[in-house]
Amino acid sequence: MKIRVVSSKNEIETLGPNEQIIHLAFRPSNTDIFALVQKCPTVKALHIPSSYKRTISKSAKIFLEMQGIELLEGDVWGHRKDINEYSEVSQSVYDRIAEYKQDGLSDEEVEEKMIRETRLSPEFVRFLVKK
Q1: DSSP state of 72
Q2: Which parts of 53-110 are beta strand (E)?
Q3: Mean pLDDT computed over 94-121
Q4: What number of other Cβ atoms are within 10 A of residue 39's Cβ?
Q5: In terms of Cα–Cα distance, which of 127, 26, 13, 9 is closest to 75?
């Protein structure tokens, strides 16, 4: 799964309409969130650092909820935007999730194991397990 990394408000205009998950590496305002949803109508989740998530307004959270867009907390560790505008979740993560599910583990058990095995945030792991 590709995660589009957006470093500034100016980059919102460069987004394509088919982006699914977007990591915001800046503190977004309500206007930025509304503009992003208009530009990317098929977005499923916004991924932002925990310090920024705490500052998102209640109205923006309600708007995202009404649109069916999840607000996920986390960072994109080790990603170099100057090399690639996308960060990717490796196929091995999906394979491991499928393997645990085949072994009969519940979603919660799969989440616990994947959080320990990866450097992904709990909310993001939960999102991946659901999808």
Answers
A1: E
A2: 70-73, 86-88
A3: 88
A4: 16
A5: 26
Q: E strands, 50-91, where?
A: 70-73, 86-88
With a CB cutoff of 8 Å and minimum separation 6, the contacts of 10 are none
Q: What is the pLDDT of residues 21-80, one digit of tens each?
A: 999 988 999 999 999 999 999 999 999 988 888 889 999 999 999 999 999 888 775 545
Cα–Cα nearest to 47, from 22, 19, 67: 22
d(CA 75, CA 72): 10
Of 100, 72, 55, the C-alpha closest to 3 is: 72
pTM over 0.85: no
Instruction: Kindly report the number of other CB atoms within 10 A of residue 118's CB atom.
Output: 16
Angle between helices 58-67 and 30-39 (to 10 degrees): 20
Structure tokens at 127: 């999102």
Over the range 93-117, which residues count as b (16 or more CB within 10 Å of their CB) and which as e? beebbeebeeeeeeeeebbeebbee
